[in-house]
Amino acid sequence: MSTVVETDVLIVGSGPAGASAALALSTYGVPNIVVTRYASLADTPRAHITNQRTMEVLRDLGVEQEVVAQATPQHLMGNTTFCTSLAGEELGRVRSWGNEPLVQAEHELASPTRMCDMPQHLMEPVLVNAAVARGTRLRFQNEYLSHTQDADGVTATVRDRLRGDTYEIRAKYLIGADGGRSRVAADARLPMGGQMGVAGSISIVFEADLSKYTAHRPSTLYWVLAPGATVGGIGAGLVRCVRPWNEWLIVWGYDVNAGAPDLTTEYAESVVRQLVGDDDIPVTVRSSSAWTVNEMYAESYANGRVFCAGDAVHRHPPSNGLGSNTSIQDAYNLAWKLKLVLDGTAHPKLLDSYTAERAPVGRQIVTRANRSIRETAPVFEALDGLSPQTPEQLWANIAARKDATEAAEKQRAKLREAIAFKVYEFNAHGVDLNQRYPADGSAAIVPDGTPDPGFARDPELYHQPSSRPGARLPHAWITSGTRTLSTLDTIGRGRFTLLTGIGGEAWVRAAEGQEVEITAVVIGPGQQYEDPYGDWARLREIPDAGALLVRPDGFVAFRHAGAGPEAGKLLAEDAGKLLADALRRILGHA
């Protein structure tokens, strides 16, 4: 009988969720093993949009600059174009991914990071290499088969696909990050809502020099309104830039009820030619694959000692670029909790907050991504392109918008309005950053008794910073000596942080005597950190002597307004108890 391999955490899957879970756990010193049934990391671009919140996570985990060095920068992402083909007529554009001037200012104010386009086949090596360098043990061609769990841990049966034999890995916890057909989630019997296979799509990866059609309107996405573009797929034909301006990926739909087409090289080339619109440009097809658009989400992310993350628990189309972002953020939420439970600092009840916090986010992004597909239909509708008709009729409808008639003027206005509405897919800054973990659902958040003010503007489009418990700590530029840094740079690294100001000395002393490591950060004139622009004073929503306790993942867990200078003695007596009581709740000891 073979020897059982032991570890603290077993991770099934090496995609964005699994790789980032491994990276975070190894950064925190938690032994972990990653198994993947494949012989290599991702070999196709797949997920690519990397939003500001994910970049903040990668910043904290120490790999932000490696991603920036390889990614397509934000300024080359944003001329999202609607056209009849790349070489054909342009119908309109949307300034996207933070490149509209007013939205760009919102991005600048919201985070120290910039979003970028980092294809999955480049992202995975960054995450995995860093994880392995910090202690992760990675096993390629090792396929998860099943698991059993008991009061003390999980025993997984794994097949070595090289040797052909099976063996067991004994772990205290198991993370299923094995994608949209997750065997771990199925074995754990996680309850699911929604449905799989609502539409059919194919992806075609190809190489071609398309700079003559794209360099003057740089973008990540070019949407093609052509005959057949409304059949299945993600709302229209898509030509996606993988690397400017020579590597590309096309998404084209098919009737899911009729089944996927035969993906021959000839078929793939015909689709490429149709969407590019230039038969003379040399094209090399690298790969093609069929997949389905899904609208499914898990209602629970855990069963006992088994947790799932990423596409295993939220399955949706690539609209809005939410897939890998949400996957990485799932893992980041879970990793610090596992670390504190494993080292005995927290009660296992802390892990219940993972589902309470992340499941609503997963459901939201599944709904948003699928709605974005449906919001493409009005673009076709403006051109009378939804009803069955010949290609010639569609081209005639498109040409009619150029007539000097009242009807054509109305058509042009309708088309502009429909394209502009796609801002909900391409500039949904609030979807990226407005996650709020509910204090009434998560025990890892301590309510402060203040009423929820809601959102002053559309919460999908606009980020609204808040220091309320359950919100991500607001970003503000502060200084320390000659250094300028973000408030987000003072937190993280696997530890809790307490932020206060002048008059908050009692909070600093209280932080020193707690059962968990807390780093105290004092911001104010003459302090370790100063607020020369006054930005932090405007965003913190508490007086100088108040306090914010921030979790390792950057979310505010506890907020107190303080007692004011005239009641400093009272605060000194109460601060330790207030902070200790909050930590007992957060860590599951209450």
Low-confidence stretches: none
Q: Give a short account of the largest sheet.
A: 8 strands, mixed
Helix content: 25-40%
> What portion of the residues fall into strands of 2 or more residues?
15-25%
The tally of beta strands, per DSSP, is: 24
Average pLDDT metric: 95
Count of DSSP H/I helices:
18
**How far apart, in Å, are the first and last alpha carbons?**
44 Å
Report the C-alpha radius of gyration, rounded: 25 Å
Which structural class fits the helix and strand makeup? Answer: alpha+beta
Shape: globular
Give a description of the structure.
The protein has 590 residues and is an alpha+beta fold. It is 32% helix and 24% strand. The protein has 18 helices and 24 strands. The strands form 5 sheets. Strands 1, 2, 7, 8, 9, 10, 16 and 17 form an 8-stranded mixed sheet that branches. An 8-stranded mixed sheet has the order 5-4-12-13-14-11-15-18, with helices on both faces. β23 and β24 form a beta hairpin. α1 (16-27) runs parallel beside α5, α1 (16-27) runs parallel beside α9 (323-342) and α9 (323-342) runs antiparallel to α10. The two termini are 44 Å apart.
